[in-house]
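Annex B. Sample input.
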Amino acid sequence: MKVRVLVVDDSKFFRRRVTEIINASADLEVVGVAENGEQAIQKVLELKPDVITMDIEMPVMDGISAVRRIMAQRPTPVVMFSSLTSEGAKATLDALDAGAADFLPKRFEDIAKDKDQAKRLLCEKVHSLGRRGAAAAAPRPAAAPRAFTTSTAASKPAPFSSTAIKPKAPTPVAAAKHFAPSKGTVKLLVIGTSTGGPVALQKVLTLLPENFPVPVLVVQHMPGTFTPAFSQRLDQACKVHVKEAADGDVLKPGNVYIAPGGRQMILDPRASAPTLRIVDGDASLNYKPSVDVTFSSVSSVFAGPVLAVIMTGMGADGREGARALKTKGAEVWAQDEKSCVVYGMPAAIVDAGLADRVYDLANIGENIIHKVM
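Annex B, continued. Sample output.
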């Protein structure tokens, strides 16, 4: 069965372009188009698509308002098209806050240098999210309160508070339901994520208390113009300090370092203290930043015990880095299938036999606290 897509954009040319690309895929089918947010809401209720592509700036009703209304009336995975500017970054983050699942640059040359590759990436993303949309007819109820709720940033705004569309398919391995054994020996926490990651990271990082005793490295697939705004929003919502990583940063406990988009974040092998280097890296790599690059660097340099967590995202980035970390004694956790927006990166970890623990997103943060503190 084909994934049914609704294309929403005020530009007739762009609607036609996206429609042609999607319809050229054997697994996808555009079932309708809309030129503003108000029309989009009507089409969603009428056509019940599996996934929606949505522009942000439109007349009558903008894309962010439309996403918020759609999530309230008929939750459906939405891919936002946005500009790679600071203003576009803020608007896209607002769209994720409203409930959008992911985003892509509106200029196809910003998706990939090769036009055919950009088309493939668009179709892969729509297909992955559409399959999830078809499996999820309604948002999951909120999890019951658990331990460590006092560590949430209740007095600060939560920028990515919307419930993501989640599938109901069972996870292929038994998910851990209880706390991991508390050892208090972890010296560094590293997290890798992609599609659905901004929401997932907010849910995890806002749980960490101000006195969290170790540094945190985060690799989120995201354009370079987005990571400054993303880091600032997380910093406002979290009790720990969150910043976009800078070249020469010395790792400090209770600090979260977000890898800059478009570059690679590694540890300096020559430094006397754990120090970050931000480099261009190999131009042939698919991801900038890459979870594999950061994790592998940590495995080569960091002397203390490491906890690595792979969360929602397409592809397999992080698998080889996690493998390298495990050879040095690191513990590796994966997010379970039912709480992922896209079960790609965590599946790669589980399928490779690298996951020591598998957790629902709602339980990852509190288990990190119990493990580390």
